[in-house]
Structures are given as C-alpha cells and as structure tokens.
Amino acid sequence: MKSLIIKIIEIVGNCPVYKIGDKIVLDEGYKINLQKTSAICMHSLASIFPYYVALSNNVDPDNLGLTKKKNYKRYHDTYKNNTGNNNTIKEEGKSAFVQCLDPCKYTGGGTVVFEIKKID
After folding, report:
1. E-assigned strands of the chain?
2. Is 95 exposed, middle or buried (0-12, 13-18, 19+ CB in 10 A)?
3. Which InterPro entries match (predicted)?
C-alpha cells in the first residue's frame, strides 16, 4: 500500500479545525502519522474513509470519479487558451478531491476541500 498525503486546499465558511495548507499523512495507506499530521477532524474522516484504501492501492482517482482526468486535454487546452499559462494544472488527474460533510451555510461551520495524493 502506498502512503497518502491529504492536503487542505479550500475552506468555505469557518472551519475550527483546519486552515489552508494543513495536511494529514497516512503511512502505508492507513496509519495516521501524528508527527506529520497538522490536525484531525472526525467529520473529515467520514469523507476520506470510502476512498483511502483504493487510492493507496493505486486505483486511478478518475475511476472513482474524484478528478478531472478524462477531461484533462479539453480542460488543459481551454485553460491555456484563456490564461496563456498551464503551470497550475500539470498535476491534473494525479490527485483525488473530496470535501467534508459540514454544510457550513446551515451550521456556521466550514466545508473543507481535501486533495489526496500518493506519496512515492
């Protein structure tokens, strides 16, 4: 099993646990590395649980519906034509994306978006 790094890339509302750039590190795909992990919220784990085993066993994030890989060429061309710069999407398709279950609009909390990548 591959190790995974889960990074907080976006927060809508106010999350009392995470800030942008925080991370969770799973060694061997399932062991939380407490020394390298910034914080852990139980709500976020509910969003990660369905996918961490598959992702750590090299299942393509696109096969799980967690990335834009199938649309990479079209997305890449559109992005490049609109901005003239394609540096920010060169990793497209290598990461999976999930979000926590907190509907911030109704709870006063924050919805967090996580990027999940394998660590080689």
Report:
1. 3-13, 23-27, 31-32, 96-99, 110-119
2. buried
3. CHP04076 (IPR023811)
3 state SS for 47-63: HHCCCHHHHHCCCCHHH
Please provide the average confidence, as pLDDT, over all residues in the chain: 85
> In the numeric block, which tokens belong to residue 70?
């199938």
**pTM metric for this prediction:** 0.79
Burial 9-28, CB ≥16 within 10 A → b, else e: eebeeebebbeeebbbbbee
Task: Count the Cβ atoms, other than its own, within 10 Å of residue 86.
Answer: 13
pLDDT tens by residue, 49-74: 999 999 999 999 999 999 986 555 54
With beta carbons less than 8 A apart as the criterion, state whether 106 and 7 touch: no
